[in-house]
Write a structure and sequence with these properties.
Helix content is 36%, strand content 20%. The chain is of the alpha+beta class and 134 residues long. Strands 3-2-1-4 form a four-stranded mixed beta sheet. It comes from Cymbomonas tetramitiformis. This is Polyprotein.
Length: 134
């Protein structure tokens, strides 16, 4: 009952709030931004990863979660895992939207702040130091 009261109080207190989306045709149809820390949780040293997926500059999907696998051995590994999650979601959304808007062959820009990951992806193969990630 207390939880229901808190929910109603929240709804009453935010009834005038709204979210406005402004269409911007100059932005890519889909764009992904992803990031991860490396062993950021001080208790178990697991990384936290996340991404934001935008459609014409409007946020339509996001995710943030502690990586459950073993502790990443490098920031490159943590970022690579985050980018993998982001790309899987972006492809699913692109394929779903593509049924209605002819986007199934579009390239999706993926932004990651780790140059080693960018290099790995552009080479289309993992280095020997990251073979355990496969």
């Amino acid at each position: 009952m207390a939880a229901a009261k808190r929910i109603l109080a929240y709804v009453y207190g935010t009834i005038d709030y709204s979210l406005a989306y402004v269409y911007d045709e100059n932005t890519p149809r889909l764009a992904v931004y992803c990031d991860s820390d490396h062993a950021g949780d001080s208790t178990d040293r697991n990384s936290v990863a996340g991404y934001c997926l935008y459609l014409h500059g409007m946020l339509i999907d996001w995710w943030s979660k502690k990586q459950k696998s073993s502790t990443a051995l490098s920031s490159t590994e943590a970022e690579y895992v985050a980018m993998s999650e982001a790309c899987a979601s972006a492809l699913a959304i692109r394929n779903t939207l593509g049924q209605y808007f002819d986007m199934t062959t579009e390239t999706i820009p993926v932004h990651v702040d780790n140059s080693a990951v960018t290099h790995l992806v552009s080479q289309r193969q993992l280095s020997s130091k990251l073979k355990h990630v496969e």
